[in-house]
Amino acid sequence: MAAPVGRLSLPRPFFPERFDAVRYLTHKPFTCQLIAVVVTASLAVMAQTTRPTPPIAKTEPRVFELHGDRRVDDYFWLRDDKRQNPEVIAYLEAENAYTERVLAPHKAFEDKLYQEMLARIKETDLSVPYLYRNFFYYYRTEQGKQYPIYCRKKGSLDAPEEILVDLNQLAEGKSFMALGAFAVSDDGRRLAYTTDETGYRQYKLHIKDLTTGEHLPDTAERVTSVEWAADNQTLFLIIEDPVTKRSNKLFRHTLGGKTEEIFEETDELYNLGLDRTRDRKYLTLLSISSTTSEVRYLPSDQPQGTFQVLFPRTEGIRYFAEHRNGEWFILTQDGGKNFRIVRAPVSDPSKSNWREFVPHNPKVKIESIDLFTRHAVVTTREDGLQKFTVFDLEQGKSHLIAFPEPAYAVGGATNAEFETTRFRYAYESPITPRSVYEYDLATRQQTLLKQNEVVGGYDKTQYVTKRLFATASDGVKIPLTVTYRKGLRRTGKNPTLLYGYGSYGVSIPDGFSSNRLSLLNRGMIFAVAHIRGGGEMGEEWHEQGKLMQKKNTFTDFIACAEFLIREKYTSPAHLAIQGGSAGGLLMGAVTNMRPDLFRVVISQVPFVDVMNTMLDPTLPLTTGEYIEWGNPNEKAAYDYMRSYSPYDNLQPGNYPAMLVITALNDSQVAYWEPAKYVAKLRTLKKDDRLLLLKTNMGAGHGGASGRYDALRETAFYYTFLLTQLGIGK
């Protein structure tokens, strides 16, 4: 399990991006005297009046000129790479104080929402144990504790429990704690794991001797991937660059001995990812950009050997490889953008020896392949929905695992064993809680192992989910998933929350949230716009919403909003929108384009200062994302990005009520982007609707790490959303 990389934590293969899906230090309050340095004297008035007055950031104009264009940034001073500038901290604290005062009258409602959502959660719970080399591994939660406890039992679930990692103990005295890598040696005697204590996604390696319970002195910083060799003594590590946070170097470490660098990815567009095949025979090293990849491999029983290139990289072609019985199964774009799968012998995997296994289909994207002793499970996406095809590799037969609902999310669960006929997967939908199934690949028998309990009772038949299609400005059909409580009448005045993302080829899953019941049960409609730039409809869907076609993402979202209004689901006065990271860019762009269309905007860790960020190669992730957004050092790309960058296109006028959420230690979208955006918008908006900035001073891109803290954050923005739509009970 690799540490999260980039602006979204993705299953393999991965690449950097600005998301979710996702903590540095806690600052003590600053004095009013210090705050006065940064904000106007209105703060003094604020304490004496019943109507709070927002802080106004000072202006220090800074001029940028490129390609004949002149930009003036009055709030560039808010950038502080070290997150320690007293003036900056004071301004963020002042905004937090203002937000708290504005929403203080709704505190009882916020507490009610929190308790309501908490009451649906089974606080003391157990994951589905999985078997790996004679041990059953699982994690469990305990009531009142923020974090999971990772455990195992030897040979039987009735055996004594062995606690491997208790994140609650590691988090004592800290505002943040996250687990990254978690890798057990083949002999089961040692555990390598990584932790992040700040939210900056900077992970430290720990190695625990599971026979003694002691930690070894071996450690490393900025580790993004960890895998063991078969000798149980050698660890391979990927370490990121301290400035750009690009995973660029591979190291070999011998326990108690030396650590040596054995490979560096020098192309700044690429990141490294490390894995081990399910049969444990090979280590694979992936060099990947958002358009191209290259695989290197090393027999896991030859840790002192050299990684060999499977196929040299070819610009515009991504490929990935998995091993079974002396053959590579290669998922490749050589032959079509939506991938095909070929088989090739390890002894000579050249193209002349390729055998077609699953052909390319322009209407079906192949997403992954899981290999077992006798079977393969291929995950595909067609018409926006995922499917499993099971192949019997000995008999040459195949069959499809079908799913009943019109919108759902499905994916492989933990399948650690190679020699098995049982495949585990997780299924959920907007109205079906997450469910883990075990499917016998030979007999086709399916067993439900666990469905997440919604405490207090939940009847899915009381809710409706639909897959609808809006028509974009160029005639393309855009999928929409709409969920609401049964019995709802389309009056054109239903409060509605429309969510969107639309970047990096990421498909937004139609999943379940017990928290969302607090919206649905109050008469709200929840909708997801599966817009271009995402991956729901294949690789073309992504390409039609990136680079010089990025504006399709925004116009698609607007078309979805107009569809909901036209079909009388809602109206502009009752429509709220939400997005995070690159989805926050979406929020900023569509609000600038159509401020009349929305009543409320929730923008989380938003990527809104596009020009300054993409023109600064010293920032994490910037250069690697030229392939997604364009390189603004080129005039055509600069002009196009300049035309939609939310921060650069703010204008005087009326805007929806807006809550902007950020985190001080965000490494994916720096806090100063949303802070500058709010500071500038305060001077331009002509209406009296709320504009609030909330900064988590001890978290990163994904917000609070503890489950109760995260629930508090949800209750907070639900309170803003509902009260701004006139729902306050």
Automatic annotation (TrEMBL):
Annotated signal sequence is none
Q: Which residues cross the membrane?
A: none
This protein's record includes keyword Transit peptide: no
- The highest taxon in the source lineage is Bacteria
Q: Which UniProt keywords apply?
A: Hydrolase, Protease, Serine protease
Question: Sorted alphabetically, which InterPro entries does this protein's record hold?
Answer: AB_hydrolase_fold, Pept_S9A_N, Peptidase_S9_cat, Peptidase_S9A, Serine_Peptidase_S9A
Task: Specify the Peptidase S9 prolyl oligopeptidase catalytic domain's residue ranges.
Answer: 512-726
Q: Which protein family is named in the record?
A: Belongs to the peptidase S9A family.
What is the protein name for this chain?
A: S9 family peptidase
